[in-house]
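[job 4417] fold queue: 2 targets
>>> target A
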Amino acid sequence: MLGAPVERVPLDGPKVHHISGWADYDDPTRMSIITNIAKQRGRDPRIATLAVKILREARVQPRDYVGQSKALLKWVQNKLYYVNEPGERLQDPLYTLRVGYGDCDDLVIMLGSLLESIRMPWKVVISGNHRSGKKIRYHHGERFPGGPERGNQWSHIYLMVGNQPFTPTGWSYAEVTLRGAPLGWDVVDGDHSLFPELQPKRKRAMYGSMHLNPGHYSLNPGHHDLGALAFGAMDMSSVGAGLPAFISSPRSVYLPTGITIAGFSPKQLAVIAGAAVLLGPTMGRLLGRLGL
C-alpha cells in the first residue's frame, strides 16, 4: 500500500515519524522545507524568549545586529552537540533543545529559528564539490545550478546572515557545526580538512544524511516551493497548544527509507504530508495510513 513496510517502534519520548519519499525531492525543495520549518518556529514566543535570553547573557546591546548574530551562532555551536545521523531526521527546534543534539540541518533550523525570532534576515546555503574538483556553493533562492547530472555533489548545509533587519546591505556565512568558527567563516573558502563530507571523489553526495538520488531531478517547476506550500498557511496558535500533548506521546511510526520527522505535532506532519502529495500519490496515502 505505502510502497514500504511500516513498523511501530515504542519510544519513551516524543513521537517520531520516518516518512518515505525524501530522496525524490531536489535540493531547492529540501532547502525550502528546512527554511520554512525554521521560519515557522521562529514565530513561536518560546524561541524569541530564548533568543533574548542568549543576547542578554552575552551582553549584546540593542541594535548591535552583527553582535546579535555572533552571539546566537556561538550559542548554537557551543550548547548543542553536533552528530552525524545514520538516516535523515529533521528536528523541530523545540525537540532539538530538549534532546540537546542534532546534525547539520537540525542546527541550521535551530539557528534560523533564533534569527527569525528577532527579525534578522538569513538564507540557507549548501556547498560541495564539482566533478572538476572545484568547491561550490548554492544560496537558496538563486538559480539552481543542478545536481549530480551536472557534476555537482552537494554535501554540507549552513547559513548566511544579513547585517541588519529589513534592508541588509551585507551578508556573512554562519557555520553551525564547528565550534569556534566565527561569523563570516565559509567552509568553501576556508580549510575544509575538518569536513570529510567536502572531500572530493565521493561516490554519493549528502548534506546531513540527505542521500540524493541522481535519478530524481525532474520536479515540476510549478511545485518547486514545497516548503512554502507546507507551512505558509499553518496556524501557529494551534501548534503551540498541541505541543505538550504531542511530546508526551510514546508512539512512533518507522519506514525503512526516506526521512524522519522528529518533534513535530500531528498537525504539522499533516501539513507536510499534504503538501508532499504534489510530488506523488504515495505521500498522500501515507497521510491517511498514519491517521494524521
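>>> target B
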Amino acid sequence: MATFPSVTPTYSGFSKKSAPAVRTVRFADGFEQRIFFGLASHQNPVVYNLNFDLSKTDGDVVSAFLRSRANDQESFTFTPPDEGFTKTGTYVQSGTTITITIANHGIAIGDVLTIDFTSGATDGSYTVATAVDANTFTVTAAASATITSTAVSVTLAGAKQFVCETWQKGIPYNNRTNISATFRQVFEP
C-alpha cells in the first residue's frame, strides 16, 4: 500500500466533508427511524478538498504520485492536517468497563485508540464504546477488574486510506506549484 509523499506542504486552505451512511424511514405520523448501514467503523467516510502550495520539485513528486495511483487504481495512506493526537488523563475500571477522563477529548463512539495505561489495565488497541460527555468516554476491557483512578495516555492515529478523486496542478510563478486535490476516504483491509 502506497503512502502519500512526505513533502511538507503549506495548506492554503482545505475543507473536510463527512457523509454518514444512514438510511432514514419517515412514517406518516411524523415518527422517523434512522439506521446506519454497513460496518460500524465504515459509517462515516470523509472527503477532503486540499490545496498544496509547494516548490516545483515537491509538486512534481506529488503529481507523479497521484498519476501513479490513477494508473494502478490503488488507495494510499494519508494523514490529513490536524487529524490524530495523543492526550493524557485518568481512568477507572469497574468490571470490564474502563471510564477515561480527558478534558475536551474530541473522541467519538467507534474511534479506535491506542491506550497506554500507567498501571492496571492491559495496554493496546480499544474501540470507544460510549462518549459520555466532552470530558469522559468508555472502552471495554477483555478482563474484569476494579481499578481506582490512575494515569492513562490515549493516541488517535490520524492516518487513513484514501483515493484521489480529482486533482489540478497550477504553476503560479517560477519554481512554485499549486495542487488542488479531492481525497475520498475508503475502507479496505
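[job 4417] complete. Note on B: DSSP finds one helix and twelve strands in the chain.
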